[in-house]
Amino acid sequence: MAREIEPVRSPVAAAPSPWRAVYDRLQAADPAELDVGQLEQLAEAAFWLGRPQESISARQRAYTRFRDSGDSAGATRSAWLLFNSHFDLDETAAAGGWLKRARKHAEEAPERVEPGYVCFAEACWALYQGDTDAALTHNARALEVAQRTRDHDLEALCLAVDGRVRIARHEPAEGLQRLDEAMVAVLNDELTPFITGWVYCLVLDTCHELGDVRRAGQWTDLAVRWCEQRGHDSWYPGLCRLHQCELRSLHGEWTVAETQAVRAATELAPFGDYLIAYGQYLAGEIRRRKGDYRGAEEAFRRTYEHGGDPQPGLALLRLAEGKAGEATVALRVALASSAGSPLRHARLLAAHVQAELARGGVEAAEASAEALDRLADTMSTLLLRAMADLATGAVALERGAAEAALPPLRSACAVFHRLSCPYEAAEARVLVGIAVRGLGDHATADLELDTARVTFARLGAAPDVARVSALQAAEPRGGTGLTAREVEVLRLVAKGRSNRQIATELVISEHTVARHLANIFGKLGVASRSAAASYAYEHFLV
Question: Which of 14-28, 65-79, 159-173, 338-352 is predicted with the least confidence, judged by mean pLDDT?
């Protein structure tokens, strides 16, 4: 009788006791006295306790036992897990060696599920090397094994990687469908904890790289809750925090995001320098926007020291320091060698537009804006589209085409507002204000610039507050323009506040509120609170 095919199990299921208890008991024993199952348990316990090198050491001993006893399936499983362990630590030479071992042992056990995991590893390796055709081929073979053997862990991994590969091939709709399908298995609690965490990581990484802010936000919230309950001291909680703090940075929660980024980078130190670099880069970007240039410089330096790329943040720091030429050179070099995610490439292009416009290189800025527009069309995410529209509008404005600049700039502002990206929305408002002022609409210009300045002040973006204030001081305010206080009153009116509630919230008298409302009605040419509220919503003040 043919032996029944058994699904490979994540070693998580082999540890019946809490991870600390398992680790303490097995680590205290003589390794020579542990059987192969106990070595696998020790490897898994070390992983969940944040000790990756100890996990690798125990896994290597387990592999040797399997190999020497002629257990090809066990040797395949151990070699595959060792490939994954080294790959996660960015130790690619060791990972490649273990993949070859896994491939050799898989040939000795073709009827089992383990060769499917090796095919999955081959897909990950091909994607890492940029060969998406080979990645799809290997992944399809792995998925066939997963479905034949009814191995839910392997099937979910294959779906997630298939999505990642298709997005890398600029097929975002198909890719996102695969990612969502993989997440169904997570939400339905069909997977072992080890694979659950892995799928979360694959999905979140891909959503962030694509710039799909809304999908990333939904899955990140779920992942954080899962990590709090099941992540223990592995690298999963730190990774989730990094994803979360990137979202918080986009949403303007800078203080919390910066603290979390530094904390996560520290927690992830045992798992690879590239993770430290990621956290330091996020912190550097927040500090740059806040005007902490010395702190940003230090964070970007640490990013580079740990093997990360500090661009475009470092170039934008140089631009803020008045070194536009240096910034454009750095960004051209970064773009020439850019093989990163769609969002990272979009950010490089957007930064290059800024830097070139600052030094008068309109032609070069326009070329990058057009490239960004093409990327946004291909990837079809709202964030990239808004970034492209902002760049297009900025170039048109620089060419003196204020009327042509307004549609993309207003569109960018609306999308950033919809995605809850206040800093980016305020950047768009500044350009809208400049454009409408050039067209003679001083009332709207004052409103846009005032609102942008209030937003920057609330975020703590001191350099941008100073920039907008300088813009306003350089041009006399229109006679019908709203003051900053009137903007605040208008926003509260749009939120349905009464005069008494507005007076309480702004610590002014009801008489003063009534006077502000009279001025607002006159300047906007409206006759009622509802009309003023409509104006506020049309201009994204609430």
Answer: 14-28
